[in-house]
Amino acid sequence: MLLSFVGIVAGFVNGLFGSGAGMIILPTLISVFNMDDVKSRGTTIMSVLFLSIISSIFYFKSVGSLQIMWYVSVGGIVGGIIGAKLVKYIPRGILKISLSLFLIFSGIRILFY
Question: How confident is the model at residue 34 (pLDDT cuts 50, 70, 90)?
Answer without folding.
Answer: very high
